[in-house]
Amino acid sequence: MKIGFDNDKYLKMQSAHIRERIASFGGKLYLEFGGKLFDDYHASRVLPGFLPDSKLKMLLELREDVEIIIAINANDIEKSKVRGDIGITYEQDILRLMDVYASLGLSVCGVVMTQYAAQAAAAAFEKRLQKLGVQVFRHYPIEGYPANIPLIVSDEGFGKNDYIETTRSLVVVTAPGPGSGKMAVCLSQLYHEHKRGVQAGYAKFETFPVWNLPLKHPVNLAYEAATTDLNDVNMIDPFHLEAYGKTTVNYNRDIEIFPVLNTIFERIFGTSPYKSPTDMGVNMAGFCIMDDDAVCEASRQEVIRRYYKALVAAKKGENVGQEILSLELLLKQLGITPTYRRCVQPALDLAEKTGEPAAALELPDGRIVTGKTSALLGAASAMLLNALKALAGINAEIDLISPVVIGPIQDLKVNHLGSKNPRLHTDEVLLALSISAATNPTAERAMQALEELRGCDMHTTVILSDADQNTCAKLGLQVTSEPMRQTKALYYK
Fold first, then answer.
1. Residue 95 and residue 22 share a domain
2. 64 with 192, same domain?
3. CATH number for the domain including 449?
4. Which residues contact 466 (CB under 8 A, 6 or more apart)?
5. Which of 34, 218, 266, 362 is least buried, going by the fewest C-beta atoms within 10 A?
6. What does the DSSP 8-state code read for residue 38?
7. Does a structural domain hold residue 492?
8. What is the CA radius of gyration of the chain?
9. Residue 391 covered by a domain
10. Is the dihedral of CA 452, 454, 460, 466 positive or negative?
């Protein structure tokens, strides 16, 4: 993948800008962190060179000045809401996040349950956290939020919420997912701090949309593609245009809520520190793009990936019809079709030629490698072995894993482990290959090429099994699939 983003420059600029913002508010800042604090793979895909843990590294540079508040919506606990990217509930993710922060020496004040109304699951999770020694705070629903400002900014509104005592100059408010109430937590804290005579301000860390890129720039369109489920739409910030005569980009929710936020600031402080939603942001990403062509191409690929993801979700029975329509519109705006993704057509061609499920992968040097389902291997497994041969310079006719080895594995799967599918999945193939590598120098060469697969684009003509999907993700492959099942079974895993 061609690098298009200067990550080191980003870390320096972002850290410096946050320090400036802290100073502008008299030494204390509540920073709402939009998106993921780490594992930000969307950003790393559309801004090649952006590291998934860049935001976390930036905070580590400010470690001595930082403490973290984690927000979770009590209603999301009740619904057992799951993070779509890693497949764990928001409650589990909070525990994971706290472990990560603790391992890095970042201080966590505690967990805030927003919209708390004694929901059974939320109350149970609260007790669990308390038993683990975690401080838990409650923020309650406010009737008429966010429009009923006189009630919100009063002792019966924000005043009823638990106050979270903080001691450092930068308080980061993060959450496992959208809709967790991060902004409301920040505003509630500002109300309580003001009542206690403490000077404090608010800012927002939101990587996308990139405010100083054009509205229809592929990077910003890729953000729309990533948030079709939230109905986010990029817009020109009218408040910024009116105040400064400059065109900047924000998204609809921040623009719609800004007049309310402005009034809340005025009620708390007597005056608002901001003239526009763009003013609230601390985002230097747009200044760190060093190859616009590279990030544009990466963003086009991201929109196609999101489109295929929605098609597969629809095939699985999820209600994503409107998302698909939105994504189709974005593809039209970019002037591309799914076959713009170079690995798509070769996979489709092989499937049509053989009548079997097929897979194709684009290697770092642009070569396309394919594989199809056989009696021994699934399409993804066959393609993976062919890709490793190509990368390691091994003759395509050589068997990296002997059929003599594959046979006993199939026997174990079918006759002892109850599997109906005798073909080897990608994880099973890699285990067999690693064992072969102990005595076979050719297999060892193939294993050494595994890391070169990271970031490669891959397409399959059928929906991958969970096992294959997980293995491909661990290898760093960017996978898309046609919305087709390999079998007609209703239950599919």
1. yes
2. yes
3. 3.40.140.40
4. 493
5. 266
6. S
7. no
8. 25
9. yes
10. positive
For residue 440, is it within any domain? yes
Cβ-based neighbour number of residue 129 at 10 Å: 20
Contacts (Cβ under 8 Å, ≥6 apart) of 147: 260
Whole-number Å distance between alpha carbons of 323 and 310: 7
Number of folded domains that form the chain = 2
pLDDT in tens, 196-216: 999 999 999 989 999 999 999
Does 55 share its domain with 192?
Answer: yes
Q: CA-CA distance, 121 to 77, in Å (whole number)? A: 6
pLDDT, tens digit (0-9, with 9 covering 90-100), for 255-271: 999 999 999 999 999 99
| pTM as predicted | 0.91
Q: Write out pLDDT tens, residues 269-314.
A: 999 999 999 999 999 999 999 999 999 999 999 999 999 999 999 9
Task: Looking at the structure, tell me whether residues 113 and 259 fall in a common domain.
Answer: yes
CA–CA gap between residue 273 and residue 253 (Å, rounded): 19
Instruction: Give me the DSSP letters along 323-368.
Output: HHHHHHHHHHHHT--GGGSTTHHHHHHHHHHHSS-EEEEE-TTS-E
Per cent of the chain over pLDDT 70 is: 98
The confidence band for 178, taking pLDDT boundaries of 50, 70 and 90, is: confident
Same domain, 148 and 257: yes
